[in-house]
Structures are given as structure tokens and as C-alpha cells.
Amino acid sequence: MAFVQFEEVVKTYGTAMSVNHLTLSIREGEVFGLLGPNGAGKSTTIHMLAGLLKSDGGTISVDGYNVAKRPLEVKRRIGLVPQELAIYEHFTARENVAFFGRLYGLRGRELKERVEEALDFTGLLSHDNGRPSAFSGGMKRRLNIACAIMHRPKLIIMDEPTVGIDPQSRNHILESVRALNRLGSTIIYTSHYMEEVEAISTRVGIMDGGRLIALGDKEELRRLTGQESKLIVQTDHSSEEAVAEIRRHPRVSSLRELEGHTLELGLSEAGTYLQDILFILGKHGLALLKLTREEPNLESLFLQLTGRSLRDG
Ligand SMILES: Nc1ncnc2c1ncn2[C@@H]1O[C@H](COP(=O)(O)OP(=O)(O)OP(=O)(O)O)[C@@H](O)[C@H]1O
């Protein structure tokens, strides 16, 4: 059974449909990446899931509990890391995490242990008495995460947790997403950074204009693009014989000759090829100057589905 289930969920603002009949199942143990440009409906979707926003139609359930009918059961299972920081500047890091722990009903030794655990997990233990006003943007985000995970939720929802932060904190956050998942939490993660989503998600949903326009694991999405991997080969000079021979290789499905003694090869699915190509180049006395492989990515899939770039928004 799905751990998170959206069934024909709708949210409208005035006449505009921000979420348009969304049906989506997320299994327990997944790191689910929700990708889409600004305004796609990602935040609206997860705010409805977390019970912060009422849907105008359809149903959402978490672990079998209907979000509208059993909000407390759902909230107990969810840790939401919001896009806007939800921490108190005048509390220390430790006081912030403890504050959220009390909201979740934790007291005494259990509270103390969980605070320790959450600070340690987010790498903030040595800054526990510092106040967020003196923290970097990345440290504030990590504190935001500590507050959201301290009750060990089964489902962690992160809304663009790495926007505008330094690379070190970004890596720390991505690493903690993986670690939380290994510890058993299901993760839903929104982003418009496709590299990030590609790197950490087990499955990806792509939203645009309130609709889910693609869904699958990386391999399924790659097949959706219908695009091949490309190999770009630059040599010191050109040879027609070498080109003819490479063109006949069973894995080479297309070949384009580019400027500067460069070939662009489209590669079909199975089988080895690199050894053979290098052998052909050597046989015809060509020296290899540069070799790069380009994989189709989520950006190209989005472009193909919508005719727009993800980054354009
Ligand atoms: N409170 C609101 N009132 C009116 N329109 C809203 C409101 N909240 C969101 N919208 C609209 O709903 C649509 C989806 O917005 P949403 O914030 O869910 O997108 P998003 O994919 O999360 O984008 P971002 O990456 O910018 O957070 C947008 O067109 C937005 O303008």
C-alpha cells in the first residue's frame, strides 16, 4: 500500500488551478523528488500534505490516515522542513530544537536525548549555545532541519532546503537526507535544481502548471526522453576511414562530424564500445585529445515535455 497517497487533489486560487487533479502514490522508504519550475505547484502540494493548507477537492492520506479527517495522526508522522526558516533568532540552537520537541509532546530525558541527537545529526552540536542571528545561512537551514526531525517522523518533507546556501552546507544537507532515509524515513523533497534531485532521489515526479507531467525512476525517465547517451570524441586530425569504420560499429546509432576534428556519436543501449572506438582511432593514426560522455538528463526531459527550460521557470 502507498505510504502517501494523493487522489485527484485540487487547489484553486480564484480562477487559477495551482494543483490540478493530482494523483500520486509514494511508497514507504522512498526519497521522492518533486521537481518543477517556480509556480509549478510544489509548495502548494506539500502544504496540503502537511495539513497547512486545505485542498479544494480530492483526498490525501499518510500511512493510511486521511489528512483532512485525522490531522493529529498525520502530523505525528510528518516532519516538515519549510522553505522559509521557522526558527527563533533569540533562542539558542539547543533551545530552538527543544521548543519544537515540547510542541511534539516530548519531556524530560527523552526530550534531552532527542535534542542531542538532532543537533548531532545536523552537525550543530558544537554550536548548540549559539544563536541563529550569528549563524550562516547554511547553519540556519540545518537548524531548521534539526527542529523538523527531532520527533523522528516517518515522513520528512523538505521544501527546497538548499536554496541559496554555501556548498559545504548543501552537501551536509544532501548527506543528511540520505542518512535519514537509511534510518527509515520516507523523504519527499522539492527542488528546481535537477542535479540535486537526480543525485538523491529514488523516484522523481515533474510538475508543471499544477499537473504531474512525468513520473518514474531515473531509468524510466531516461527512456521517456527517448534520447541516447552521446560520446564526444576530439582527435588531433581527421580520417574518413576512421569515421566510416566507427559509423559501422553496432553501438553507434548516429554520427555527426563537428568543427575541430570532433565527432559526436549517439550510443544505442547495450554492449561495450569504448575499447573498439579507441582501437579504430589508433589504427588510423589518430591521437585522442578529448573524450566526453553526455547523458540525457531531467532538464532535457522537461524541455522535451514543455518546450521550456526548467531554469527559465
Ligand atoms: N496564497 C496564494 N494566493 C494566490 N495564488 C497562490 C498562492 N499560493 C500559491 N499561489 C499560486 O499557485 C501556483 C503554484 O505556487 P507554488 O508556490 O505551489 O509553486 P512552487 O512550484 O512551489 O514554486 P516555488 O518553486 O516558487 O516555490 C503559482 O501560480 C502561485 O502564484
UniProtKB/TrEMBL annotation:
This is Export ABC transporter ATP-binding protein. InterPro entries: AAA+_ATPase, ABC_transporter-like_ATP-bd, ABC_transporter-like_CS, P-loop_NTPase. PROSITE patterns: ABC_TRANSPORTER_1, ABC_TRANSPORTER_2. GO terms for molecular function: ATP binding; ATP hydrolysis activity. Keywords: ATP-binding, Nucleotide-binding. PANTHER family: LINEARMYCIN RESISTANCE ATP-BINDING PROTEIN LNRL. It comes from Paenibacillus sambharensis. Gene3D superfamilies: P-loop containing nucleotide triphosphate hydrolases (3.40.50.300). Residues 4-234 form the ABC transporter domain. SMART domains: AAA.
